[in-house]
Amino acid sequence: MCKYLLKLIILCYAVLSMPTQAESCDDFTNVSMRKLHAEESINFCEFKDKPLLIVNTASNCGFTGQFKELEALHKKYKDKGLVVIGFPSDDFFQEENDEADTAEVCYVNYGVTFTMLSTTAVRGDDANKIFKHLNKEAGAPKWNFYKYLVSADRKTVQRFNSRTKPLSASLTQAIENAL
């Protein structure tokens, strides 16, 4: 009985002393953020070694229709490793005041299945940690639906403006190169 108890203690110690996923992610993506209209959070370290397409979104913008093409990108490339993440933001005064309304626009109106986060600032001093890094590396978004393609090794950030459609040749080629 003592042998089994000792083995159990050793096993527990080994498991508890293993580095966590967050500890194994030592770049700007070592951050947790809450999902849109949910209590669940994600830690960006979950996406280690995968390219990220990060987009600042808004529910009431002339570019809101890009959700359809972003969803198409997500479906086309998710099995190859691309992670699409939307950051609703009211920095340009075009986001819903109620997160439930933002969720309805994304999930009901546009059928979004890629990760959407709770509303957050994406520029200026109030920008979240992810966008502070993106802004430093590639420049802050000048409007909604700026797209940031972050390489799997996190060393390269490419910025695409609002007018660049998600399924455009330039963005899809950059994604394919990143994969």
TrEMBL record:
Catalytic residue list: 61
Signal peptide annotation: 1-22
Keywords: Oxidoreductase, Peroxidase, Signal
MF annotations from Gene Ontology: peroxidase activity
Taxonomic superkingdom: Bacteria
One Pfam entry name: GSHPx
Keyword Oxidoreductase: yes
BP GO annotations: cellular response to oxidative stress
Gene3D superfamilies: Glutaredoxin
Family the UniProt entry places it in: Belongs to the glutathione peroxidase family.
Name used for this protein in its record: Glutathione peroxidase
Species: Pseudoalteromonas phenolica
